[in-house]
Amino acid sequence: MKTVDGPVSQTTSSETTDFDDLIIGSGMAGLTVASLLVSAGRRVAVLEAHDTPGGYAHTFAMGKFRFCAQVHYIFGCGEGEAIHRLLSRHQLENEITFERLNPEGYDQVVVAGERHRIPTGLSKFRDRLAHRYPDAKKPLHEFFRIVRSLREELAILPEKIGLRDIATAPLRFPNILRYRNWTLQRLYDALKMPSRLQAVLAGQAGDYLLPPEQVSLLLHVALVTNYDRGAYYPTHHFSSLVDGLANVVATGKGSALHLDTTVANIETDGSRVRAVHTTDGRRFTARRYISNADPAATLKMASGLATRGRAAKKYEYDYSSSNFTLYLGIRDLDLRDYGFGNHNVWHYPDDDINGMYKRQGAGNDLSNPWLFLSTPTLHSNSPGLAPPGHHVLEVATSCSYEEFAKLRMTDRKAYTKAKVKVRDRILEVIEENYIPNLRKHLAMKVAGTPTTNEFYVRAPKGNAYGSNLTPTFMFPRIPKQSPLANLWMVNASAGYPSVGGTVGAGIRLYEHLEGDTL
Q1: What is the rounded CA–CA span in Å between residue 159 and residue 157?
Q2: How far apart are the two ends of the chain, measured CA to CA in Å?
Q3: Measured distance CA(498)–CA(73) in Å, rounded
Q4: Angle 155-159-164 from CA coordinates, rounded to 5°
Q5: pLDDT tens-digit profile of 261-305?
Q6: Residue 8, pLDDT score
Q7: What is the residue-wise DSSP string for 408-467?
Q8: Which pLDDT tens digit goes with each residue over 298-345?
Q9: What's CA 123's distance to the chain center, in Å?
Q10: Fewer beta carbons under 10 A from the terminal one: N or C of the chain?
Q11: Residue 103 preceded by cis peptide, ω within 30
Q12: Closest CA to 187 of 152, 151, 216
């Protein structure tokens, strides 16, 4: 998967190997902290194994089409929010702009053929559902009351809990204390929420790839309330955001962005990092080291480090689910004629989202999958993704990593056959429910499996969101400070998932390291 020529295609490969800061990986958290350190005058090196920066936000070209690997819409772009603050620091806020998805229905959840539009405004969403389901007015009002209360407390919850916070928690954070170990399903059950409304209210579950019976209630609230402030798509597509930050690093004085550069091991003296070695034989040194890679995988690369007891336990976690993705280029067909537009569509064949995740995960049964459908060519009029008169449709669902990994290792023909089978079934579901004769209009079709994620972005087990977002792994997340005194972690696991979440993690780490508030 190669990117088209762009601003970072000729990234400098400086011969300098000694820096102030060295970052392993160029996902959004890594690019965020790297670009901010460069703006502070630090000499920064970023080592990226892929041939393009951005992690899951990178863009690749196939024929005349371009696709963003895994990101479809984001939050945090409003004035004063994380992404806007980052771009303002680099004076890029007028160059890298965003289109807001339809506030009357930025996500549209289709359950058993019935469409429900999720608008901006929790009260508006509540009232729409109460009007449509009058018998469920009481549980709906209580559900949204709890969501709003948790949103208010999460907004003032400090990143690091101090003694004062603990002493005042019953007064300041009563709902967080009560619900911190709850799943979304536990709240549904307590409220006796009807099954159809359970599916609708969990319609955005693919944004964390967990069903209601597993996902942390607090994580669900954080996600839906962040999108409630505004769901966005970059005016000039995700490559503009990634390239803008990458160029800050690549053009920084004494800094370098090294692509196609894989870390082989991290040299330590047992308590500090001494150097980072790459597979091409180079040795990089720095004053501080930051890993944008998976925390557990990072520590496995650290020679001479022995973590035991409580320190080791922090790095023993389950990974979030992986996904199967279809990237489609469409000709001679206007997707707006089929219910698509400046919004996303979540397709569920029935009310039982818990059952779907079980079948598609442990059961590896994708015969009747849930689907996420996104149309980036309808989110922005800016050219660059498809030839004139064509559209891009990106489709995703959850699936088992183990099955695809086993086939890819043992029988590549069987792996390809399995991939084609899932691809064709997804296309059938889209034709049956949304776009008749879709396959006659396909100018491009590319499928990605969990092993695709693992190969290109080095995500262990093809995970989409770092450590699993169940109550067990939510509080605390992986700490920023590693067991090594000069090695720091910044990513979805040492923070929170999504572009907004990882940019926020990068900003917080920069502020911690430099004592500078954006």
Answers
A1: 7
A2: 35
A3: 9
A4: 90
A5: 999 999 999 899 999 999 999 999 999 999 999 999 999 999 888
A6: 46
A7: HHH-HHHHHHHHHHHHHHHHHHHHHHT-TTGGGGEEEEEEE-HHHHHHHH--GGG-SSSB
A8: 999 998 887 766 777 889 999 999 999 999 999 999 999 999 999 999
A9: 27
A10: C
A11: no
A12: 216
Q: How many CB atoms lie within 10 A of CB 17?
A: 16
For 313, counting Cβ atoms within 10 Å of its Cβ (0-12 exposed, 13-18 middle, 19+ buried), the class is exposed
Phi, psi (degrees; rounded to nearest 5) at 147: -60, -45
Contact 48, 261 (CB under 8 A): yes
Tokens of 461: 């087990």
Residue 110 CB neighbour total at 10 angstroms = 20
Q: Which residue has the tokens 């995960």?
A: 361
290 in Cβ contact with 23 (< 8 Å): yes
Q: Which residue has the tokens 């084609």?
A: 420
Amino acid making up residue 398: S
Candidates 114, 2, 11, 107; CA nearest to 61 is: 2
Within 10 angstroms of residue 115's Cβ, the number of other Cβ atoms is 13
Count CA atoms closer than 13 A to 93's CA, side-chain side. 15
Please tell me the distance from the alpha carbon of residue 146 to that of residue 143, in angstroms, as a whole number: 5
Asked if 479 and 159 count as a contact pair (C-beta separation under 8 A), the reply is no
- Among 34, 29, 82, which Cα is nearest to 54's? 29
State how far the Cα of 447 lies from the Cα of 172, in Å rounded to an integer: 48
- Read off the DSSP letter of residue 235: T
Nearest CA-CA partner of 58 in 113, 3, 127: 3
**Mean pLDDT score of the chain:** 94
- Pairwise CA distance, residues 460 & 319, whole Å: 8
Q: How long a stretch of residues is the chain?
A: 518
Amino acid letter, residue 195: S
Report whether 467 contacts 473 (CB < 8 A): yes
| Type of residue found at 515 | G
Beta strand pairing call for 18-24 and 114-118: unpaired
For residues 221 and 176, the answer to whether their CB atoms sit within 8 Å is: no
Query: H helices of 97-183, where?
Result: 122-132, 137-156, 163-172, 174-179
Task: Give the sign of the dihedral formed by CA 500, CA 2, CA 61, CA 446.
Answer: negative
Confidence class for position 474, pLDDT limits 50, 70, 90: confident
